[in-house]
Recover the amino acids of this structure.
């Protein structure tokens, strides 16, 4: 980079901001200073606001800002704007920068990669001069105090972004641990969602080359985060990021590529199998799971878990009754067998004593016992 040439060639200060700086300077003999809030287009810096220093030190020839306010202001700036540098009043007619100013300019140059603007002004006569610092070289640049053209005026676009997070930790975690974990990782999580968003205006996607003159409210559809329980610990849902126009079939394809998944598994929301054509946008904030389809079809015939429990208990009672009945019948058969054997034994003894074959009589006796016993 050639430090002999300025990065910024011109600064434009709106009349109402110039008037404000003059009025503030007239109210005190001390120096006053302001942060210049604006943006750079090409080689022109546009000033859109002046925020007065929260002075750490202030005197007729010296002013120093409070670092804490500097930090808070930078953190609170809308996207697209930045602190370009500062504007401050010099006493008398001293328009040139001082050695202290040069040190400040050079520090800004290092911190902003030479994208900076500084304005020094005096009250009598009403004059100002602008500078751009490149490394350790300070360049005087052109300055204009005028009203901004319509296309130069600032416009604010409000983005609405639906994003949710999931964060895991031990059940006995303290809130301060949870907060630290969230703060440390939230930016990275948002970055994953917003890597390639869809931008909508009036529910219509905005073409890449659309002029934004008449647009203010923009809805951002980020990469869709879908949470799925697919491991062995069903307290953990793993997150997949897919384009906003993706469908369940795209998610299933991604899962089968990234994980070793059985082809018999299907995606479910609760007990309902998901149609492959459902848009993933409908699943944001919900927990999906993978289940065996055939098993789910069988279970699906029973309307509720309560009905399943009732059916199971009924079957158990029936089985118990059948078991008791069967056991009772088996005991009767055993008794009949004992009686039959006893009758045979008696008949054998009678045969020996009388020399007769009374088998027919014994069978008749047993048959009679079976009918009446």
């Amino acid at each position: 980079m050639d430090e002999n040439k300025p990065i910024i060639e011109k600064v434009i200060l709106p009349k109402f901001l110039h008037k404000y700086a003059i009025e503030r300077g007239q109210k005190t003999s001390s120096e006053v200073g302001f942060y210049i809030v604006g943006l750079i287009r090409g080689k022109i810096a546009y000033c859109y606001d002046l925020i007065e220093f929260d002075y750490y030190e202030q005197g007729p020839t010296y002013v120093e800002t409070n670092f804490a306010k500097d930090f808070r202001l930078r953190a609170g700036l809308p996207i697209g704007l930045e602190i370009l540098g500062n504007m401050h009043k010099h006493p008398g007619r001293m328009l040139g920068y001082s050695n202290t100013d040069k040190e400040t300019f050079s520090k800004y140059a290092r911190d902003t990669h030479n994208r900076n603007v500084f304005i020094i002004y005096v009250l009598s006569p009403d004059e100002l001069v602008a500078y751009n610092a490149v490394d350790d070289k300070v360049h005087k640049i052109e300055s204009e105090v005028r009203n901004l053209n319509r296309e130069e005026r600032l416009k604010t676009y409000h983005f609405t972004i639906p994003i949710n997070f999931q964060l895991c930790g031990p059940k006995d975690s303290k809130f301060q641990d949870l907060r630290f974990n969230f703060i440390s990782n939230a930016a990275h999580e948002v970055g994953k969602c917003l890597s390639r968003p869809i931008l909508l205006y009036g529910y219509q996607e905005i073409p890449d080359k659309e002029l934004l003159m008449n647009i203010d409210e923009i809805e951002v559809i980020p990469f869709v985060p879908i949470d799925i329980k697919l491991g062995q610990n069903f307290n953990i849902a793993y997150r997949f990021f897919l384009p906003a126009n993706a469908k369940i079939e795209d998610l299933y394809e991604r899962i089968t590529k990234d994980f070793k998944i059985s082809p018999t598994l299907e995606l479910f929301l609760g007990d309902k199998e998901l149609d492959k054509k459902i848009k993933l946008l409908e699943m944001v904030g919900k927990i999906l799971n993978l289940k065996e389809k055939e098993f789910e079809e069988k279970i699906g015939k029973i309307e509720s878990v309560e009905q399943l429990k009732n059916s199971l208990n009924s079957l158990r009672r029936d089985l118990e009754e059948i078991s008791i009945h069967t056991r009772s019948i088996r005991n009767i058969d055993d008794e009949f067998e004992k009686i039959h054997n006893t009758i045979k034994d008696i008949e054998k003894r009678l045969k020996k004593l009388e020399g007769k074959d009374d088998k027919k009589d014994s069978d008749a006796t047993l048959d009679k016992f079976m009918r009446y016993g």
Summary: Residues 310-372 form one domain. The chain has three domains: 10-152, 159-171+179-300, 310-372. The chain is about 35% helix and 25% strand. The two ends are 118 Å apart (CA to CA).
